[in-house]
Model the fold of this input.
Amino acid sequence: VNRSAATVAAGLIVLGGLAGAVPARAESPLDDARNALQHHDYSGRMTIEWTDTGGHHQAHVGVRVSKGLVSIDGPTKEVAAGGERLMLGDNGWTLMWPAASLNATPPALQHKYAIATAAGPVVAGRPTRLIEVDVGGRPRDRLAVDTETGVLLRREQFDTTGRLVRVMSFDSIRLDATGSASPQPQRRDLPREMRARQLPAPFLAPRALGAGYRRVGLFRQAGAVHVLYSDGLYSLSLFQQGAGLDQRRLPSGGRVAMVGRSVGRAYAWPGGEVVTWARSGTTYTVVGDGPAADVEAAAASLPAPRRLSIAQRVRRGCRAMVEAVSGLW
Amino acid sequence: VTHLGDAISALLDGELSPAEAAQADAHVLVCAECRDELMAIARMRDLVRQLPLVPVPRLVRPAARRPVALVAAAAAVVALAGVTYRPPAQTQSPPVGRFVQAHAASNLGDPLSNLAPAAVPVGFRP
Done:
């Protein structure tokens, strides 16, 4: 733990007030929120607000936390049980992420952000402590955590100009949720971990991307190569597919986004931004929960795709010729 | 942007009409992707053309010489075709909603912040 992190942690403990009920402070305020989930049972109703090109949106979800098990009850139902993530779909519960944690450690929050704390607003009838995460004096994230329990009660996210773009806030909360068991998954749709040196051309997995993102995982998932990045506060996923982009079949809405010299499309989702574009026969989709400008800066920093080797081109050409010939019969 | 695709080989082989060739030339001037592809194919063709002719070794019996030469020639044709052949460009539409769910499920950060927004599906459908 470096000196600045230790100073921040010490400051948080002093400002915590009723810190006796709160577990030891971690380097990131989100780690604190994650720790609080393990030590407090509660249930409540939460409002999520976000803006996109279609205007301002609002949705409500139920939250129940019991013995570390987090259940989200919205239009989609989701569960976090330890490291595992499960989602309820048409075919029952699907295990989306395994219990095993990532091998790589995300970068320290302080490598990009500054943290300040202050007395926070009353949220859902409970007093809070406000943790403000800034870059260059502009707010990026404001977290209001319960002064007694450390539970995250409200989160406000800003774009790079300081405009409020997303809010997640409890409307009501009760600190006595009853226990429930983790659902049994009927399906598994898990990422398969890969090593960077196993990655075939033209796919890429740079160690770092623009806006301070560092690589923390590399997987094969959902028919794509999935590279996971973190900047210490936000995460970003880069998905790569080995075919060009059919712009006509893209989801409607969104807006045009230039990624380097490529024309892409950007969409907002309640938790962040998606950008998709193609270059040299490979389609890239970046999903991030940070500000749109950071997500787009990370996308634009991706280097040119690796060229296929002669052997790969021969293999690809032969396969295509066999497919073309076999299609004649 | 419509790239030249198979027209690059046709351009190199002089199979395009003068009007088509002029149009392709104009595109190559402004499209780095097609320019790179054109140069790569042209380089590959030059390299293959510069390969020395190798006489069939005398040790090979006359009766066997012809089939061996035919097999070698066929292999060379397949390899060359493999390098220069451009399969029809495949396209797709990325499953944006599925990617968002996969991203939200990754266990970095705070589960509440990750999962709560992902529980609100938005219309990522073409």
